[in-house]
Every structure is written in structure tokens, then in C-alpha cells.
From TrEMBL:
SUPFAM superfamilies linked to this entry: Galactose mutarotase-like
Gene3D superfamilies documented for this protein: 2.70.98.10
GO molecular function: aldose 1-epimerase activity; carbohydrate binding
Record carries keyword Glycoprotein: no
Lineage: Bacteria, Bacillati, Bacillota, Bacilli, Lactobacillales
Family the UniProt entry places it in: Belongs to the aldose epimerase family.
Protein known as: Aldose 1-epimerase
Top-level taxon of origin: Bacteria
Keyword set includes Disulfide bond: no
Cross-referenced CDD domains: galactose_mutarotase_like
Amino acid sequence: MKKELFGVTTGGKTVYLYTFENKNGMKMTVSDFGAVLTHLWVPGKDGQLVDVVLGYDQLAQYENNNNVYFGATIGRNANRIDQGKFEIDGQVYQVDQNEGENQLHGGFSGYHTRPWLVKEVDELNQKIVFLLFSPDGDQGFPGNLSLEVSYQLTDLNELIISYTGESDKKTVFNPTNHTYFNLNGHANGTILEHLLQLDCSYYTPVKDSKSIPTGEVLPVANTPMDFKQSKKIGRDINQIAEQLQLTGGYDHNYVLDETKQETEAFVHLIGDQTGISLKGYTNLPGVQLYTGNFIEQEAGKNGVNYQKYSGLCLETQFFPDAVNQVNFKSPYIEENVQTVYETSYCFDA
Ligand code: BGC
């Protein structure tokens, strides 16, 4: 493991970058600032390393990472909460409303913009564990929550991200990771020619351009939302279809088939230029496919200007607004019960 100074935050905290390398030369870099993933170098067909995630060079940019959420660990709640309001056991909670009247990705002070503690560096298993304490009332959510996020890079070229949460009151625990992948390389154009296969038969449509779900769970069959068979991401993205027009591309929650085992991949993505492929596994019930529709001239790593569709996110999660939707699995954890979620992305060329 290599530890380098990343910088000093505006709040005066010194933060670092941690780089792990596996036996195949694959490397990941993460920071104790925001528990963000900043770099992921994967060997391509020719053995050359390709950095397949979008990101920034400067700490100050990660401190203002509230539009695009590059590499971000999101908490307490991934995606949106309608009106920032919900009820637990008869008690109404009003949480931060940071996107119009709704909440997006935890509110004004997302976990991705805070310094975390390093709980453990496990050199043998190429793993780092970050720790965050989120007090009762933080972002408006109940309960003192202690949260661990670990990143592990295995010799099988897997990136394993796990989330462990425990709270002294029943609360929402719906973390995700907002990394944008571009398997052709972060600086190498858009993801529109990538081949994507998503093993999901259903998705949750949105009401309008504010992206609160209607509450329905609809089949993808015979719609441009269908990725059951592998297809180019750009193939149907410009179709005149209400759901795609509302969100300017794919920005939808897909439902993982309930019969799927955690050992079966829910997604298979291939970079058309490098041949690098990613397979994803999780024990969470949904995944937000977001094709970077709202990225506009974002100054990123190595002087690259990222654009619309420069990368795509595969955010494993409880469904959007699950706190208010009776049809959706609820994202609560019970008082004093430790809960663990895990998502892994496995790379090959
Ligand atoms: C959401 C998008 C949002 C983006 C922010 C995604 O998870 O689904 O609607 O614009 O995050 O970068």
C-alpha cells in the first residue's frame, strides 16, 4: 500500500490517498476524504493499465463534489426522498431538502464530503476500512449511526465494497457508491458504444423530471429500458420514449431478480475499445443505471473535460424514495442490529 498526502480540507483536516496494487498490476486509489474512490487502473488486453473511473485531481474539487458525485460514498440515503419527508413508526422526519423540495444522496452534507477515520489497513488482503460516525439528527435522520465502508482489491481483479451500519434507533441505512465507469478509459470519450447487459426484468419508472418514482414496478420488455440481452448503451438512448426524455438518458432504478443468487452477476459491461469487462454482484435489491446525463464540461483528472455520457454509474441500492413507497422493500435497519451490504465489481480483459 502506498499512502500519499492528498491535502488539507477547508476544515483543517489532513487527508490522504491510499493505493493498493494486486499481483496482476491492477491498482485502486481511495481517500479518507469522503471514502471516495479516485482511481482504478485495470490491465487491458495488451496489458497496458487503463484508469476506468472518472474523478478529480484536487482535494478542493472533491470538497465541492455535489453535482456529479465522482467516486462518492453516498449516505445515509442513496437517491431521492420525496419532499425530504417520511415516517418511522408514526414519527415524521423532515430531512435536508437539497434538490428543490426533495432530498438527493443524503442532503447538504453528504458523507462523501466529510473526512473519515481509517479503522484498518489490511496489507495482506489489500483492504482498507473507513469509519464514520453520523450523530442522531444528522441530515435530519434519527439515530446515532456508526458506518464502516471497506474497499478491497483482490488478486482476482475484484473491487469489493462493503458497508456495515449500526444505529441506536431504527433508521434509514441505504448507502451506495457513485463511481462513474468508462471501461475505455476515463479520458476516452463516452460510454455510448459500451455493451451493457443488465439481468433485470423490471424497473421503477419516474413521475417527472424530478425523478421521484411513480411507485410502479414495470417490465422492461419491449421498451428501450431493456438490457436483458447485451446491447450498446447508445442504441436506444435517443428514442422518443417518455422515461428517457424525462431524465435525458438512462437514470433509472432496475430491480434485481429475486431469484438471483449473490454469486450471479447482475450486470456485464464491456468497453468496446479496450475489451475490458466488468461484472457486478450485490446483495442489495436494486441498481441505479445512470449514464452521466447531467455532466457538463466537468474539469477532471489529467486536464480532461468530462461531458454528458463520459461515464456511467451502477449504484446498488434500495429503490429511490423507498421510505415512502409501500411497494418497495424498506431501507430501514432496526435499533442495535449490525447490517452489512456488499457490492463487488470484477474486471477482466
Ligand atoms: C441520480 C441522478 C443525479 C446524479 C447526480 C444519480 O444517482 O440518479 O439523477 O443527477 O446521481 O450525479
